[in-house]
Amino acid sequence: MSEREIIARGEQSGERVDQLPAVVPAVDIFENENEILLHVDLPGVQKDDISINIDNGKLALSAARYLPTAGAQAWREIADVQFRRTFAVPQSVDLNNVRAELKNGVLSLHLRKSEAAGPRQIEITTS
């Protein structure tokens, strides 16, 4: 499957985050023979405020950023926000081998391909 086959679409409903303005996070997608790798830009998001669900061929990602406030607000341009994005997951992905890591505001999702989806040599027989 190529990276173009992963199509962003839809959105997911949440609970507390429904009251926040929703934005679509920037995503880079890379593919090699072993995995599909997504880098999702989630600045200021804490690990506990991220939800990743894979169901019925769709990967739904939602996250919320809550910035701490103290004192009287004099000026504010960076608000609390909800990030939401959904991707179609190719059948070649091994759903039991999906890893996620958050570092410096970037969520890396490693979607490992199943061995059955990898390249293979077809033996030709003669009769």
What does this structure look like?
By secondary structure, the protein is an all-beta fold. It has a domain of 83 residues: Immunoglobulin-like (Sandwich), CATH 2.60.40.790. Helices cover 0% and strands 43% of the residues. The strands form 2 sheets. The protein has a 4-stranded mixed β-sheet with strand order 1-6-5-4, with no helix packed on it. Strands 2-3-8-7 form a 4-stranded antiparallel β-sheet, with no helix packed on it. The radius of gyration is 19 Å and the shape is elongated. The N terminus is likely disordered. Belongs to the small heat shock protein (HSP20) family. Pfam families: HSP20.
CATH topology group of the domain at 22-67 and 77-113: Immunoglobulin-like
The helix content, as a percent range, equals under 10%
The number of strands is 8
Backbone CA Rg: 19 Å
Shape: elongated
Strand order of the largest sheet: 1-6-5-4
Rounded to the nearest angstrom, the distance between the terminal CA atoms is 34 Å
Alpha-beta content class: mainly beta
- Secondary-structure arrangement, i.e. CATH architecture of the domain at 22-67 and 77-113: Sandwich
**Tally of DSSP helical segments:** 0
- Sequence of secondary-structure elements: EEEEEEEE
What is the mean pLDDT?
86
Tell me the strand percentage band.
35-45%
**What is the CATH domain class of the domain at 22-67 and 77-113?**
Mainly Beta
Note the main sheet: 4 strands, mixed
Low-confidence stretches: 1-15
Organism: Desulfobulbus oligotrophicus
Pfam family, one: HSP20
InterPro entries: A-crystallin/Hsp20_dom, HSP20-like_chaperone, Small_HSP
Protein name: Hsp20/alpha crystallin family protein
